[in-house]
Amino acid sequence: MSFLSFRLKTDPEKGYPQTSSYSSLRSRRRQLACISIFGLSFIIFLFLWNTQPQIYWQASPPLASSSTEHETPPSNLSIPQIPEENFEIEPSPLDPLAVLNGPPTEHFRDNLKGSVQYITSWPNAGWTNDVMTFANLVYLGLITERVPVIPPFTPSHVGWDVAPIAFGDVFDLPRMRRLIGKPIIEWRDVKKQDSETLENLGCWGVWESSLAANTEPRGTNVLRHLKLDISYTKTPDWIKYRQDMEHDPHTTFWTLARFAFPETRNRNLVTPRPSPQNQVSLPPDEQMLCYDYLYYVCTQEPFEWDKDWSASWRFVAQHMHWTPSLESLADSYIRRTMGIEGNEPTPPYISIHVRHNDFHFWCGDVPVEDCLAKLPAYVQRVREVQEEILEKKGISVNHVIVTSDEKDDAWWQEVAELGWLRIDHSMTAVEHGEWYPVLIDAVIQSGGLGFVGTDRSTMSVLAWRRVQDWHGGSYRMVRWGRPGADDH
């Protein structure tokens, strides 16, 4: 039967014939159409494949072969040459490279970025006082919107034949930057440590104006290591905080901050003092603002570090945590002293700092044996701290570690009879360096749940502030200076 002899029935909605034979024919036509489309697609694919570079993808790179021979692709393959691109990763705004031209240079000024202003100062006191000086420097940088450039610590408490130690080798500078949220750099970031180039710099002299007895800027040994030759310009006498107190050398942060800005700077330019080596007279540098000494600086009153509102502590020094390596080293000393072995955790402890060595100079007419506090005063304060920790934290602390500059063996025997512990530093300087006895002691003092210190000692002040703010710990300070000074 021919196709034309079918009786076609029309679907009223779709308008095409509805028969089983016609449906079969339509299905065959669809199959032929699909085959044709597939064939055409395959021809196009072959054409494109032969005219485009072939790229072989791998899910993962092959394992490195120990053989020195390398497999080469077949010669008939065309390996695409992907052009190299220079992807420059912007440094973090807190990274030194964000505020410098690059790595340290032979001349410090070559590394200063034109759009950035800096501030620096020099150490010249005991180590703890230098820590406070550098915290003051950073705080002054915050309020003047300048990048602090911190020099190394000089070994005033260690011996001048010992090399300085960098700030960042003691304090965790990356962590400090994150916590403060501002860039803070060191001189070793700016200038090569092995540079032999002596450079001139103009600075403000604060020391000469703060006390009538001071006839020249504050000296410092660090300039010899930084290869800097400073020309100082004396600040005006009005920088002194208390004009009526002859022997108080304090000034204030905002008084000194004024010299960071053109108006006060230009009004107070006087003839600079020639630099000691090159005899060059330079006005205070406008990009690298510097002062000779920043220890005696306050916001509201002299020696305010022991106040809970202390700006230098709250905004800077509480964020100056020890480097992880220094903390780990100090912990090893603690565990050895306590006899802790294996994986047992380090128990909580109370640390004591007894300052004796140079305080007898402050005793005046009072005999030293009546002036310096005796051990029973420390025993009483330790007991109070133990009770407070138990009440606040529910923890009984029985380990007590004593740090002191006391040399008398009989005194240390009394310490041992109390059941208190002493850190063995007999090999510390040999194994780790001359700086480390004092550094390890400072870390230990700051690491306990409680602390008992010596009144008027800056080392004790920083220790109790760390214990209180870092660990929520308790503290007491033992008074001294006369018989019964700590009675209460």
TrEMBL record:
Transmembrane segments: 32-49
Native source species: Tetrapyrgos nigripes
Single GO molecular function: transferase activity
Protein name: Uncharacterized protein
Positions of region (Disordered): 1-21
Lineage, highest ranks first: Eukaryota, Fungi, Dikarya, Basidiomycota, Agaricomycotina
Keyword annotations of the record: Carbohydrate metabolism, Fucose metabolism, Membrane, Transferase, Transmembrane, Transmembrane helix
Database matches in InterPro entries: GDP-Fuc_O-FucTrfase
One of the GO BP terms on file: fucose metabolic process
Protein origin, superkingdom: Eukaryota
Gene3D superfamilies named in the record: 3.40.50.11350
